[in-house]
Amino acid sequence: MFILNILVIGSEGTIGSRLVEKLREKGYQVWGCDIIRKKAPNYTMADITHYETLERIFADIQPKIVFHLAAEVSRETCEHWPTVSVETNVMGTLNVLLLCTKYSARVVYSGTSEEYGDAFQYGKVDEDTPIGNPQGIYALTKYMAETLVEFFHRTRGLSGIVVRLFMCYGREKPTGYRSAVTQFIESARLGETIFVHKGTKRQWSYIDDTVEGLIKAAQYRLDDHGCYETFLLGRSETWEMIDIAKKIRSIVNSKSRIEEIDVPKGI
After folding, report:
1. Most buried of the four, 14, 190, 193, 203, by CB within 10 Å?
2. How far is Cα of residue 261 from the mean position of the Cα atoms in its chain?
3. Using one digit for the tens of pLDDT, what is the confidence trace for 232-241?
């Protein structure tokens, strides 16, 4: 059972919102914070790039588990405005880690499988696979933030769990991040052209499986305050995106045309 007082940073995102629901279903005391303005119990608006706003939340809640899911996840935004990516994904993470250290909280950091970069060219990856060359600013900043978690563990005794997430699909909010699977389904239902990036393939995980994995990762050696571990969270099967588009079109019984397009730089 979790120690009380769990904080989910990035609670309004696709994964964060489902994580909050699951934790509360299990009977845990959960607070959420995000950059989105709303009024709700146990929720506070905060910007992770502003240390002072986060510190007030930590001081009030005194969390023992912090799920850090907040990030700039748009690959296009990261490429066009890399300073935004660095400020949010790196500097924002630094603020979270400083506060987790100050309040003796375990952090569960959501990394990404994209950190492996070109390592995927040589076969399947696992926790022992060396990080390859990053293919975009997004992957680079996520890896930079991950190295901060390891540094704070090594130098300041932070209890840190890094979970590198593979592509996730499932129930998503109408705004914000939308997976390729969701976009394919919508296009197929509307009879619109399904656009697929040429030659791309991904390993996918259903959102509820991803959330359960995050919870189990947080529970790993929970009593060990000096614990540090990295987990990959996803499925081993690799799907060609063109095959996923064809499968969705068949399931939906759609007549949508499938068109392969070049992959934008950095995505």
Report:
1. 14
2. 26
3. 988 777 778 8
